[in-house]
Design goal:
Layout: H1 7-10, E1 23-25, E2 28-33, H2 38-59, E3 69-71, H3 75-81, E4 89-92, E5 96-99, H4 111-128, H5 137-147, H6 158-166, H7 192-209, H8 211-222, H9 227-235, H10 239-252, H11 258-261
Parallel strand pairs: 2-3, 3-5
Antiparallel strand pairs: 1-2, 4-5
Helix pairs in contact: 2-4, 4-5, 5-7, 6-7, 7-8, 8-9
Bound molecules: zinc ion.
Length: about 270
């Protein structure tokens, strides 16, 4: 079973483990490679500029510090740093991004997308830290997935996310990240794939509705403003109230509801 959830939701990283086993890639010292896996490192270096540009554009700010990516070519390497070795990539709390050998193997095609998703977490982590208590997890993961153009939310389709909403399985908008207890998708009866996809659709809807307001919101969040306060300041209402507009649209709009529109309503007697 593959896990699409990134370390922020499903892993408990070994934060303090030293990183002495990595060496800088000659072509790009931002990429730190496990010795012997330089070819993997070269692929990461090739994907890095676009990934950084996507994150900085989506966050409307440059990285506070040049990001570093640690590339594990072996399972042993990845296991030393991340407690959930099935993960494809992970950001750990002290802003070290570790990539797993999966992204050089069976999940090779996901490298760019997951690198971007994790760099989005790293970017925000540099400014406000990780496990920030005021940021709802749907926003945290939805924004990273949106930034990565679906990366990290790629095991469920939009249609599946809409179907879950119509079936009454909605993201718990109130769940927040806390250092001691990470909220999981199960808390809202969604599977992890539906949770990521629905979260991405929520954040994408906010941005599409009014990008200037969305930009004001995320700049405030990145300046360490409490999420709820920032949301009220920008939108003049709470986020649950605002997002009811998204849910109502999914519930009523025929374009989200293909299966039912083809059936004519029965004639009244
Ligand atoms: Zn994530």
């Amino acid at each position: 079973m593959l896990l699409s959830g990134c370390a922020l939701t499903v892993s408990h990283p070994r934060a303090l483990h030293p990183l002495e086993n990595f060496v800088p890639l000659p072509a790009d010292s931002r990429v730190q490679v496990e010795p012997g896996y330089e070819a993997y490192g070269e692929r990461v270096a090739a994907a890095l500029p676009d990934a950084i540009a996507a994150v900085e554009a989506a966050h409307y700010l440059p990285f506070a510090h040049a990001p570093r990516v640690h590339v594990c070519g072996s399972d042993d390497c990845f296991r030393r740093y991340v407690l959930t070795p099935k993960l494809s990539a992970a950001v750990v709390p002290d802003n070290r991004l570790i990539l797993s050998p999966n992204l050089d193997g069976r999940e090779k095609h996901r490298l760019s997308a997951l690198l971007t998703h994790e760099l989005a977490h790293l970017h925000l982590g540099q400014r406000i830290g990780h496990y920030h208590s005021t940021l709802p997890i749907w926003f945290h993961e939805g924004w990273a997935s949106l930034t990565a153009d679906g990366g990290g939310a790629d095991y469920a389709t939009d249609a599946q996310a809409y179907a879950a909403i119509r079936a009454g399985r909605r993201v718990n908008l109130g769940a927040r990240d806390t250092p001691d207890k990470r909220h999981r998708a199960g808390a809202s009866q969604l599977n992890i794939f539906e949770f990521y996809r629905q979260s991405m659709l929520l954040v994408g809807w906010l941005r599409a509705q009014d990008e200037s307001r969305f930009k004001a919101l995320v700049l405030a969040v990145q300046d360490n403003t409490d999420f709820e306060i920032a949301f009220w300041n920008v939108y003049g209402q709470g986020h649950a109230t605002r997002l009811a507009g998204f849910f109502d649209g999914v519930q009523s709009d025929p374009i989200f509801n293909d299966n039912q529109t083809v059936q004519a309503a029965p004639a009244k007697p």
